Amino acid sequence: MSKSRLEAFTDGVVSIVLTLLVLTIQIPDAPTWQSLWKVRLIFFAYVVSFGFVAVIWVAHHRLFQLTDYVNDKVVWANIFWLFWLTLSPGSDNLGWTASFRCWYKYDG
Description:
Elements: H1 3-23, H2 33-38, H3 40-65, H4 72-86, H5 88-104
Helix pairs in contact: 1-3, 1-4, 1-5, 3-5
């Protein structure tokens, strides 16, 4: 497998992860400031999770800039890394929502 193909596959998976993150944001019932205020904590969780994925993706990109070629070990290590990254949207949503309910009496 070529290096560029692995990078393209990784970019695709990361873009899907980021898309799944944005799907967790609840659309307010009415277009009012009060409705937006109710989803502020979910939006904050989205921003933090997006930043987390972005930092990891940039580190991955920099690592592959230093790489001349990939072998099967690198491919499987990358797939293992992507597996854990794909757990990010669900675990982030679960963890943030539980935390908000405990600390801020979240009513979403």
